[in-house]
Automatic annotation (TrEMBL), chain A:
Protein's organism: Bimuria novae-zelandiae CBS 107.79
Any single GO BP term: translation
Cited InterPro entries: Ribosomal_Su5_D2-typ_SF (IPR020568), Ribosomal_uS9 (IPR000754), Ribosomal_uS9_bac/plastid (IPR023035), Ribosomal_uS9_CS (IPR020574), Ribsml_uS5_D2-typ_fold_subgr (IPR014721)
One Pfam match: Ribosomal_S9
Disulfide bond as UniProt keyword: no
PANTHER family in the cross-refs: RIBOSOMAL PROTEIN S9, SMALL RIBOSOMAL SUBUNIT PROTEIN US9M
Family of this protein: Belongs to the universal ribosomal protein uS9 family.
Keywords: Ribonucleoprotein, Ribosomal protein
Domain of life: Eukaryota
Region (Disordered): 315-336
Official protein name in the record: Small ribosomal subunit protein uS9m
GO molecular function: RNA binding; structural constituent of ribosome
TrEMBL record, chain B:
An annotated Gene Ontology molecular function: structural constituent of ribosome
The protein's name in its UniProt record: Small ribosomal subunit protein mS29
Pfam families: DAP3
Cell cycle in keyword set: no
Protein family according to the UniProt entry: Belongs to the mitochondrion-specific ribosomal protein mS29 family.
Amino acid sequence: MVRGELSRSIWAAAEGLLSAPRPQCTRTMRYVQRSMRPTTRLISTTRPRSAELMDETLTTSPEPFTAASEINFEDEVEDEEAAKQGKSDQKKLQTLRIVPASPSYFSAKPTFTDDWIHLSALLRSVATLPTVPNSEAPRVAWKTIDQYRIMTNEPVKTQRYHKMMHILKRLNCIHPSLMPEQVRTAMRRYMKDSQPGDVVPAPGVIDEWGRARGVGRRKTSSAVAWIVEGEGEVLVNGKSLSQFFGRLHHRESAVWALKATQRLDKYNIFGLVQGGGSTGQAEALTLAVAKALLVHEPALKPALRRAGCITRDPRKVERKKTGHVKARKMPTWVKR
Amino acid sequence: MPPSTCLWTLTQRSPETAVRFLSKIHPQVVYFSTSQARYANPSPKKKTMTAAPKRGTKTLNTKKGRSAAQDTGKRPAPGDRKQARKRIVLTNDNALAVASLKDMDKADTTSETSQGQVLGIPEATVDALRAVEAFKTTQGWNLFRRPATLMRKETIELAKVMNEAEGQKRTLRRILSGERLSGKSTLLLQALSMAFVREWVVINLPEAQDIVNAHTEYAPLPDSQPTQYTQDTYMANLLGQILKANSSASNPFLAKTQVTANHTLPVALPANASLKQLIEVGIVSPEASWPVFLALWRELTQPGRPPIMLAIDGTAHVMKESDYLNAQVKPIHSFDLAIVRHFIDHLSGAKSLPNGGVVLAATSQSNAPKTPALDFSIEVAEARRVNPNNIPRWNPYKNIDPRVMEAFKDLHSPTAENGAGGVNAMDVIKVGGLSKDEARSIMEYYAESGMLRAKVDDGFVTEKWSLAGMGNIGELERASVRFRI
């Protein structure tokens, strides 16, 4: 064997072990199988974890794992024969030991075990920090077990995952002002990509004419209302309130957001309504006017919520089903 | 003997011998016949279960003792129901009398200072208004102790019009238009009451529908070209109303004034007859009512006589063909009815009032047939006030009534000055919503009458004003007095 070839091949082997990804074709095959059978039939075929992940979890781990120290081959070789170079290379190859990145490499679910150990250690290290009650902790959408299984590609048992969730929820209860950055980074791994409160609706604006726009819906009606500062004039589809709504009750519904907050004489309303009947149209206007009013005065939100102008009433006509007379009514029973 | 062998023996013989043989066996021979069954008495019909009569069909109910026990309630006498429906109630004893309420007097009807005040209608005027049927059952007079009205912006505008008509002896014509329940008929009533207070002669056609709905007799007017039709009973009744309304104790104009011209009447007049006697002739003999009315009109238009207030409510009904038929069984156009013709001539400006006066036509939104020509004319008149260069155009796909368009041609010109009778002789008064001050004033009156039990402050007034569709007075009354909780 030519000199230097050995070292090159060892290097290549080590490289292959570290970085070579598993062939994609086998993976797709496995996914097909998985989709047909339940997750319990998953075989642990962990792919090598990325360097980034290991950095995140292992290097910063509070209780780092240390493998046995390396064997110093050079000392042994030195004593014997320095002249026999080729033989010593072969011997080196025989004594080569590949150390796994994780101590749980030989367990059934190495990633999960690592996660578990890491989180438990983390909790032990931060257990003394003050906490807030669970109800006051920031709301977090955790990954579901299926999402976690897909991420780790391991058949994690539900119960185990729940236990891990307990730890995570306990970590989340650390007082937000004292939350260590390390915990925050660690928790991010188990959160869903989108969190509640991520999507913030664009704040309403008052345009150059002083108008604020609001949209409301009820039953099958939808309403758009523009509100400007004024003295209580109302136009709905170009008609006055009394012309558009015959019933006094509907008129009161339409301007209820302003009436409940004693602001009927401060604003003018221009509403456009379509669809549905008069009740739906009036109550769609309630919502639209309330939303437009919130643009002018955001502090009114609690008052409007108490007045029932914030929540959209989701009730609609239930569809008729086959075999039923109406949505739920069954035909009368006839004895043959 | 078994029967089969017996029949066997029959078949072996010839038919004649078989018959003889049978007659030997049975002496009476019965031939096949259906007549016996046909002539028999019909068997008594079986009592079968029949289906119950359909809902809504009348059935004879002869069960004993049932009708006697049922419903002993007293039915109203014939005519009672109609009388209850048509009854005008002008007082409410349970309402409080408003101490601060002032009667309308002549000074109020000529100045602008009374705008926004609630003024009571004087007793004599109430009687006169009752006589001309100016009060309507749908109006809320029965809620308060005595009739009172709010002097709103439009009332003052009308008062100014009356000032001008009286001062300059002009004939001013106005059409009252506006939303439903916005107070058009009440504004007409206010105009009539102001006319009574100013001692004008008032002739009011209380409801246009009653003239054209073919409920009164009619006859062609002789020597009229094209043929006009008179309604004698209606005219006699109208003359009665004119007489009753315009002869109060304080203003005995009709009784004092003598007939000056020589009229040709079918009935003879006494010498030196007063106008009152002239009218009474028309009331007593309906066939003479139309000539009497013309004679009265001629007397009223003599120089030195008071101005005339000529008014009609529900104008749209006379802007189409009436329900009367002519000799060719074609509908008669309302303008061919003599009284309507008379009114329209003055409304359109074809004839004028030499002593000055106001011709008023109130429209209705709740009881009005479709009259595109009238609607269009009002629309144009309202648009030209805003911008004379941007007036709407006639929709050619709508059915036009050329006679109506001709009558309202003064409203169609881009400027109001071109019409007959001078500047602004004919115009539309748009009866809109009350201002907040006016709304507050009327609501304070409601509260003082005890019909509104709430604190009348700015917030309350604004709330009701908004809910009433920006101060629609009828809706305001409904929201604050009628539908109170």
